[in-house]
């Protein structure tokens, strides 16, 4: 229960005062409005130039292929680090307390790989596929944990090279 003069009542009053002011008096809100609604402001030559640059970039096949590669890499990285823990617990009978370190090993492998293996990125794709298959096909928690850490090591340099 808040009493008049309490910090909670002061916070509510400050929030109401902020929202009751005109949006044009609030620089953050007005910049957000300008960003979200381009209808209220005429299109400038700079905006036309940016639109032209975007259309030119989307016509370039190398740019589109690179964007798709980064999209696939990000999806693989996030899904591996997010799904390996439930996989090891549910299908390999791993201890939840110990299996939690596997994601740390994966992320640590990514960090080390980005520093050490950047020059060999084209040779690493076969290794990543083999390690991923090893994780899914070998029913051993410790072997899977080591394979996931090495998988992170080999996946690490892919993103900076893209």
Automatic annotation (TrEMBL):
> Where does it reside?
Membrane
Q: How does it sit in the membrane?
A: Multi-pass membrane protein
Extract one GO cellular component term from the record: membrane
Q: Does the keyword Transmembrane apply?
A: yes
UniProt keyword annotations, A-Z: Membrane, Transmembrane, Transmembrane helix
- Matching InterPro entries: MFS_trans_sf (IPR036259), MFS_Transporter (IPR051788)
Q: What is this protein called?
A: Uncharacterized protein
Q: Which organism is it from?
A: Bimuria novae-zelandiae CBS 107.79
């Amino acid at each position: 229960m808040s009493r008049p003069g309490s910090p909670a009542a002061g916070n509510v009053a400050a929030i109401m005062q902020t929202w009751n002011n005109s949006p044009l008096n609030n620089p953050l809100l007005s910049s957000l409005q300008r960003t979200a609604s381009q209808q209220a402001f005429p299109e400038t030559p700079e905006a036309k130039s940016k639109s032209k640059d975007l259309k030119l970039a989307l016509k370039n096949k190398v740019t589109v292929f690179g964007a798709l590669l980064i999209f696939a890499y990000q999806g693989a990285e996030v899904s591996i680090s997010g799904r390996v823990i439930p996989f090891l617990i549910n299908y390999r009978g791993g201890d939840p307390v110990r299996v939690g370190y596997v994601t740390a090993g994966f992320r640590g492998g990514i960090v080390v790989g980005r520093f050490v293996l950047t020059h060999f990125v084209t040779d690493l794709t076969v290794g990543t596929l083999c390690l991923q298959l090893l994780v899914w096909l070998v029913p051993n928690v410790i072997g899977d944990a080591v394979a996931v850490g090495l998988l992170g090591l080999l996946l690490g340099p892919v993103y900076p090279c893209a």
